[in-house]
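Posting for a labmate who doesn't have an account.
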Amino acid sequence: DVARGVSSSIPKHLLPFPSEFKFEIPTTSIDLVGSKICALIEGLDLKWRYRAQVSTGVGFARANVWSRAARRQQKREAADDEKFVEKSEDGEEEVEEAALGFKIQLAKESKGTAVSIRWLQGFDCVLFESFCGVVKRQMAN
């Protein structure tokens, strides 16, 4: 954010892609928004953990699993039983080669609930932007 507001003489396409996407939902219930986000993300083939006490969730996806084409391909490959998450020696889950890591935080605002999606892992800015768009569109419904 600091690099983007310093000078208007630098073209935006030369600046790094923003690592955080924020939007607001008119619903003031954080629990309702949290359950809606959990329902959306748990329906996808990715690793997701949500903690309601702090209204924060962290997820990892190995590829674009939310687009229509990815969902069709997943149905075709349903016979393939490769696991995305494996257990380590000490029993904790490890994420293998995640293409996108993200953190979603919810906060109560005066007009509703603020949703913040932060990019944690991966190199594909188009993948992050696509994921943010899907979450925003689904939350608007």
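Reply:
Got it, the structure tokens are right above this. DSSP finds four helices and seven strands in the chain.
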